[in-house]
């Protein structure tokens, strides 16, 4: 998508940039603004959006393990997703059978092509689709839709001799439903040029009154850019049951402007057209759309990392690490470690990136080798310990081991291994305590860095 593609270039530049962070942010923001404006996104919206990005980039601390640049990309992603509609994924499933869709739009916006694409899309979902040619103005409209119906194996109704679109629409809907169509799509005429929205909406109303469609879809050509705002707004106000399809996203730099303008009206974009072929129609999903603009693979792995970090129990980990460093190894700490490990699985690499946690990770690492099954057994064993045993593992003798094993339903050998693990961990910490310099360094790092770490809540988004 031209226009928006420049965002990816801005990110590429960001990744390669060196120098003071503030300078990097400044240049990146400028690139981003240029890219969005060249995509015809409303200038005011562009400045609001980049202002938010700049503020977040400079004020917020990235989560542990995420670099500032990656964090900046993540912030950009979030802002772009909300620019293009946020978390909403449109519901394109017909709410009932049969379902009647009426397509409207100005001349040449892509209605007839889109009717064919929709027929193809819904047929591939298992629906029986019917197409009605209710455009009596455009010469060739009948043949154009008939061919599309043949191509997509859709039912078809049209009357090349009639000059009455309302009559055709009414008859067509009735006949195709009788023939067993689950979805009937009515293609209408688009004599109206840009700026003739009033006339378009008026005629739309007339046909709609006659056939009472379940949904009216307004087809908008993406090359309208942000001018799509007025049309979409009036349509949205006049037709609450309506939704919008933005076509020709492939052929214009202004697609970003068209999409963001339509989103700003509160109307729902259900599909976007991305080529002339009947297969080139996509359900519009803002997240996927933005991911693609930014370069899918990269952003996905970044998001995944951020989300993983967000789900970490940092407070619990901090406490456990602190306790470990202070040399008070107990089964309570080990229990927390095991729970973390169970949750994180192979993601301990992330933990390793958290300042001060590497030592903690080393000890987790040795547990990691013991495998999932063992972890479950050890957790069960710890669960059947008394409070006294939890805090003073040294009092656990043979007879206590036996009792714990029976209580947990595990072998006594498992309990022994757990005790051995405790002992090796305890030894390690004691050794570390002797290296006071390292310890002090770590603790000073804690004091400075850990309290500042704030993990945003991505889970609710
Ligand atoms: N590149 C590209 N071209 C498209 C897309 N959708 C439609 N077109 C082209 O746009 C032109 C007009 O499409 P139509 O479907 O005939 O438009 P219409 O709204 O039915 O036009 P009228 O019936 O005259 O109002 C055709 O050349 C289509 O191939 C799209 O998503 N991408
Ligand atoms: Mg047409």
Short descriptors:
single chain; 461 residues; alpha/beta; Four Helix Bundle (Hemerythrin (Met), subunit A); Rossmann fold; 434 Repressor (Amino-terminal Domain); 3 domains; 8-stranded mixed sheet; 21 helices; 8 strands; disordered C terminus; binds guanosine-5'-triphosphate; binds magnesium ion
Question: Could you walk me through the main structural features you see in this protein, from its secondary elements to its overall organization?
Answer:
There is one protein chain. Helix 13 (314-325) crosses helix 14 (331-344). This protein has helices at 5-16, 21-38, 43-59, 68-83, 111-124, 141-152, 165-178, 197-211, 228-238, 255-264, 286-294, 296-310, 314-325, 331-344, 348-353, 358-368, 371-383, 387-391, 398-408, 412-434, 436-449, and strands at residues 99-104, 129-134, 155-157, 183-188, 215-221, 243-247, 269-273, 281-283. Residues 353-357 and 446-461 have low confidence and may be disordered. An 8-stranded mixed β-sheet has the order 3-2-4-1-5-6-7-8, with helices on both faces. With 461 residues, it is α/β, with parallel strands linked by helices. The chain has 3 domains: 1-89 and 286-310, SRP54, nucleotide-binding domain (Four Helix Bundle (Hemerythrin (Met), subunit A), Up-down Bundle), CATH 1.20.120; 99-284, P-loop containing nucleotide triphosphate hydrolases (Rossmann fold); 313-452, 434 Repressor (Amino-terminal Domain) (Orthogonal Bundle), CATH 1.10.260. The radius of gyration is 31 Å and the shape is elongated. The structure holds guanosine-5'-triphosphate and magnesium ion. Magnesium ion binds next to helix 5.
